[in-house]
Amino acid sequence: MIRYYAWLGARSLRRNPVLTALMVTAIALGIGAFMTLYSVFHLMSADPIPWKSEQLHIVRLDNWEADGGWGDSASGESVPPDQLTWRDARALMQARQAPLQTMMFQIALAVQPENAAIKPFNETGRMTYADFFPMFEPPFLFGSGWDRGADEARERVVVLSKAVNEKVFAGENSVGRSIRLGESNYRVIGVLDSWHPAPKYYDLTTGGFEDPEGFYLPLTINDDLRLRPNGNTNCFKAADDPSFDTFLTSECVWTQFWVQLDSAAERERYLDFLNAYVTEQKALGRFPRALGNRVTPVLEWLQLRKVVGDDVPISLGIASAFLLVCLLNSVGLMLAKFLGRAGEIGVRRALGASRGQVFAQFLFEAAAIGVAGGVLGLGVAWLGLAGVRALLPDSPMAASLDPQLIGIAVLLSMTASVLAGLFPTWRACQIAPAAQLKSN
Amino acid sequence: MLHMQNLSKIYRTQLIETHALRDFSLHVNAGEFVAVTGPSGSGKTTFLNIAGLLEEHSEGSYQIDGVEVRGLNDRERSKLRNAKIGFIFQNFNLIPDLNLFDNVDVPLRYRGLASAERRRRIEQSLARVGLSSRMKHYPSELSGGQQQRVAIARALAGEPKLLLADEPTGNLDSMMARAVLELLEEINAQGTTVIMVTHDPELAARAQRNVHIIDGQLVDLGSEPSAAIKPAPATRSVAIA
Lengths: 440, 241
Description:
Radius of gyration of chain A: 30 Å
Largest sheet of chain B: 6 strands, mixed
Strand content of chain A: 5-15%
Number of helices of chain A: 15
CATH architecture of chain B: 3-Layer(aba) Sandwich
Oligomer: heterodimer
Order of helices and strands of chain B: EEEHEEHEHHHEHEHEEE
Number of strands of chain B: 11
Strand content of chain B: 25-35%
Number of strands of chain A: 11
Order of helices and strands of chain A: HHEEHEEHEHEHEEEHHEHEHHHHHH
Largest sheet of chain A: 6 strands, mixed, barrel
């Protein structure tokens, strides 16, 4: 019978096409608006590294002035800065208390291709440690990341993004070749495949949804390069002079520090280590605030940083309300359509259909409307997202529909239509067949 | 085949109670062709609806093919209706957006028959009423007489033991009416019990037996319908205090 109901449901779309078109359009608009905003919400609130987001932790030391300044204004609670000073981060790196750890910061350099036909261009890069690659697991197209030995030896090696490799080396395997970044040459040892973690959780200081950097260099070579960061720098004490050496020893925070800790016990142990380190530093006259160090896993970190702003859930709520209004409209239209077929219901009942069978038939018809509305709604959502992308090309809103979201849209549309169809279907089943047979 | 004993049907509203059938007893043997006559509002349609399990009676006993229907739930009544009863209506009651094949298929779907068996029955039934060449046509493409023949084919496809016909020729001209009646007689001759409600004394006269309903009560006339067909008092209503 299910095939029969499905067949009748599909046929029912052709019956009374104006009414059908109105219902499908109402559902499509509701689903389209909802899916547009849900896609944005989904993108922004997704776990960027679900298989190990519990293991990766950002490290924050509560290094700020004693009487406030840096704090969570909403709750009034004092929280540590997002980044670390150079000297604290280097000290933590040297202590090597986590199985995998990296300090890092963003830089910007001019890429100067050997091929004169390609004009030099500015590109952001990331100075980091060898552990960056096993920790954040970017996929490699060619080669690999460098090892800890390269960190210690301050090797001039580089890992390129796929985009930069395509631009400079036409997408060929460039491992072993040389590339000039800024004033130095570097040997390419790896090329990443497409990699767009969203949100870009490992560095939220320049925005949660920026593209990853175009190249990665061992941070240790900055002892020679003496590059300043391209990202945010925050200081609570004025530097004595503007020199780079003073900058490195200042209380300015500008490096991110991440560790991989595989268990709660490791996390506790690492926090104890941090507290001990800060206590030691307090004795030297630093860290004027009470101990407030944090070791925070990825998802908690995204939540703390409010990567998904309040406006997105509000918009999603409005879209849900709009979907509800569209569904209520559909209830009215479906009621009109179903009750308009009282004669057919009477005939089917006379020919042996039970109330349950009539109920099932009409629910399938409601589902057919839902599928049609869902498919059209996907088109509306696609247009909606295209509009968002056109209006805000660099925004996190530049989401797209993936197969999972397409499935959700159709399922949601079907479920919503079936729910909307329950009352009209129930009413249709209450029709007394005898009365209809005589008057039909 | 059909056995009603002291059956009554009362319609109740907040203010009034209407006795559509009162103390109604009727026994129809298998293979009979019974015409039911009576003035408008006498209770003929109510009788047919109860006989066809489309309505429940208020009191009394009703057995169809030996099965007592009182107390059956909707699913059981629907199953029994599908298995034992065929309907022919004055307005044909074909589903307009299904072609003839699919219209005849409707009761067979609820029977749960296999596809090949359904096809065999549909083709056989439409052939029997002379419409096998028009299986893919829609009801709106047929004359009234042809539509009624499709309705008969639909009823026959289910191989019912009891065929209930409600004014089957009421919307047809005399030639088509005669053809439909001959078809009903042929079906009856092959063993199907036929109960036909009609206003037409000429049609009633062709039945083996006539029953007349007046004011919700039965008068069995044997094979002489005309004497009973006369204006009747309205169905009695009793005001509720």
